[in-house]
Amino acid sequence: MKRLFVFISIMFFVQKIDAQEQVNKIIDSLYKEDQFYIGVTNNLFGNKPADLSQSGFSSGFHLGFIKDMPINKNRNVAIGIGMGYSVNSFNENLLISKDNLGAVSYTILDDDKTYTKNKFSRHLLELPLEFRWRTSTPSEYNFWRIYTGFKFSYMFAHTTKYIGDLGSFKYTDIEDFNKFQYALTLSAGYNTWNIYMYYALNSIFSNNVNVDGQSLNMNAIKIGLMFYIL
């Protein structure tokens, strides 16, 4: 919730600056749009085992830059390519633990009353590629947009954390996380508010991870809001 409050505060501050810039903006026939973005999502699991569940708000925070490259005379159709950063947490009942020899095990916790925190977080460097359509003009700053594309991500850091009846432990060296992620993305909306959807095409974990005899082939699904500026 803290990330959500920070995001909303930043969004209104940036919107105020952007509105002032639009007032002072000289009409530019070679304009570009939406080259900076900031967003917040609720993170979900796809293809999860039947007994695995999530609790609370699993937050994602996203920001970055996309170079807008119009490909038609009206400049309302464009290709975008950029770079960004994303941090994503997943609150769930999948316990990731180690034994005395350092072997990693995965267990689904049946009773959520036995722990107060159980989650993992991933920090990603992202390369978005988008096909962009919008109703903008050189003098129109409020417009409809649909941006769809592909996002390639590299996980450069992660954390798993548990606090409960089994004690308190935290790991930053679980090798079973897939370092690379590939996803389809969609942003659509009008003016400030845009719905954002992300659907990963590969699993969060590597193929050798099993829980209760099932392959843990879960992928990440993110749904939230995206805000664009400049």
UniProtKB/TrEMBL annotation:
Domain Outer membrane protein beta-barrel intervals: 30-205
Pfam family, one: OMP_b-brl_2
InterPro entries: Beta-barrel_OMP_2
Record protein name field: Porin family protein
